[in-house]
Ribosomal protein S18-alanine N-acetyltransferase
Amino acid sequence: MLKKLNNWWRWYRHPLPTELREFHQSVVIDGIEYDLMPAQLAHAEAMLAVERDAYFGQEPWPIELFWNEINRQHERLYLIVQIKATHTTVAYIGTAFRPSLREVHITNLAVNRQWQKRGLGKFMLSYIMSVAAQIQFETVSLEVRMTNQAAQKLYSRLGFRKVRTKHHYYDDGEDAVEMRSTLGKGRL
Ligand SMILES: CC(C)(COP(=O)(O)OP(=O)(O)OC[C@H]1O[C@@H](n2cnc3c(N)ncnc32)[C@H](O)[C@@H]1OP(=O)(O)O)[C@@H](O)C(=O)NCCC(=O)NCCS
């Protein structure tokens, strides 16, 4: 009993095994070769640049927030995508692991505008969903702006469903749609 509790506590505090946190994967999407890897502190500037570009310079997270998120190694996983040939960072996804709910929450997802509509958003989100399923998490959740049709379409394609509206969720007063995918019942 004590051993079981001990194992559970270890999992609860560190739900992501090292092999899912320390990796470097090459992938070809639509004929272009990319590298997928966990973000390190040194990548924060490049992630901020992706964020600025993707959101047209609006409300980028401050660099300190990126540092803080990347440093929270036991509860967060930030992945970046680089173009293999140039090592340029063109996309990233941020996730928060909530073991008490067996839920992974997507904190952000951004693709440099020049690199959008090439399958990178879908690839990163699918990857996180498969990691979540591997570690026995049950749901993936996120919030998205009511007007962000592109992102909502992507999420719907991956099996996310609208759960509720969060009124005036964003600083400018826009509502958010909360979306959720139940792993195993989605498209994985
Ligand atoms: C949303 C975002 C991450 C999508 O990334 P992406 O790499 O361009 O998306 P993908 O190429 O993987 O597209 C996957 C699917 O999403 C949908 N989609 C993506 N961009 C779209 C657009 N501009 N208009 C309509 N549908 C779109 C499509 O259904 C697409 O599948 P299809 O090409 O087979 O039809 C990207 O547009 C982005 O960074 N936007 C700005 C930041 C943002 O809004 N982040 C989400 C915060 S919640």
In short: The chain has six helices and eight strands. Residues 17-139 form a domain with the Aminopeptidase fold (CATH 3.40.630.30).
